[in-house]
């Protein structure tokens, strides 16, 4: 695997039988990246971050998916001719909307919980994340969804025009599909009420329908055989954004290797050439009065 050569070989613990199952595969003191790689939404300070991204069977973390989906947003926002008008959310959005949904149900569907001041409304305005776009300017919104009871990632895609949430599940069984559809319910139930707060979503000055969005399972997807759901989620989103059909045979090692190498090379390029995009640059301090 090409990725192994990205870091000095003497930093690596070679144990071919158990290497990729270990939490620590680097010699003591050799795991650190100094200075950390800056990826806009988060800094990466350990080589294990890349190891978990590169090798099949490794569970991706919130950090991996937040960074990947941040760069998908950038890809769509700054493309000269984007094929799809879209934005994405992050792992915090999922936690926020699920927490609100639990309170909403516990309080017998108390609509006073849904306000224009809520964090969910800020996401919809495009103000909550770096490179975020207002949803009314998009056709699709991608959700990172973590099924905690299943320890499994799935992808949600909202088609705003159709009022449908499409559910992408790389571990499809009757039981897991049922749990995945349930995990999509907070989006389906609450977002119509949030949309009703914004005039941009109204058509011909008619009230917005408050019925829950339909949740639709996407069939015919390639299926994981190990703990690779995070990689499948990222790849499903990218295939749709590039308007490419999802292949029935999915080479997860190829996809992981590609992501790890791309992120490593990009981080090194920024470090060597002192490059920071506007969204990744540190906040500017107040101007000094030179008079």
UniProtKB/TrEMBL annotation:
Gene Ontology biological process: proteolysis
Keywords assigned by UniProt? Answer: Hydrolase, Protease
Name the PROSITE patterns for this protein: ULP_PROTEASE
Q: GO molecular-function annotation terms?
A: cysteine-type peptidase activity
Family named by the database record? Belongs to the peptidase C48 family.
Q: Which residues form the Ubiquitin-like protease family profile domain?
A: 44-240
Q: What is this protein called?
A: Ubiquitin-like protease family profile domain-containing protein
């Amino acid at each position: 695997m090409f990725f192994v050569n990205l870091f000095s070989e003497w930093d690596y613990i070679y144990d071919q039988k158990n290497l990729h199952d270990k939490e620590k595969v680097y010699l003591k003191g050799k795991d650190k990246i100094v200075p950390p790689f800056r990826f806009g939404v988060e800094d990466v300070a350990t080589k294990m971050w890349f190891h978990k991204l590169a090798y099949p069977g490794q569970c991706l973390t919130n950090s991996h998916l937040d960074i990947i989906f941040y760069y998908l947003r950038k890809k769509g926002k700054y493309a000269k001719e984007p094929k799809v008008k879209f934005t994405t959310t992050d792992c915090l959005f999922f936690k926020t909307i699920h927490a609100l949904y639990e309170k909403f149900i516990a309080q017998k569907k108390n609509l006073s919980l849904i306000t224009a001041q809520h964090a969910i409304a800020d996401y919809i305005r495009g103000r909550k994340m770096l490179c975020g776009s207002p949803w009314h300017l998009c056709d699709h919104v991608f959700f990172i969804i973590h099924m905690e009871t299943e320890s499994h990632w799935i992808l949600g895609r909202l088609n705003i025009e159709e009022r449908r949430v499409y559910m992408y599940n790389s571990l499809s069984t009757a039981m897991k599909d049922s749990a995945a559809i349930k995990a999509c319910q907070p989006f389906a139930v609450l977002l119509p009420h949030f949309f009703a707060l914004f005039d941009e979503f109204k058509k011909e000055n008619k009230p917005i329908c408050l019925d829950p969005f339909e949740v639709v399972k996407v069939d015919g997807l390639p299926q994981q055989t190990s703990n690779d759901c995070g990689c499948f989620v990222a790849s499903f989103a990218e295939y749709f954004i590039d308007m490419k059909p999802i292949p029935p045979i999915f080479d997860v090692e190829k996809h992981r290797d590609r992501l790890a190498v791309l992120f490593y090379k990009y981080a090194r390029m920024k470090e060597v050439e002192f490059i920071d995009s506007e969204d990744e640059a540190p906040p500017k301090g107040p101007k000094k009065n030179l008079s």
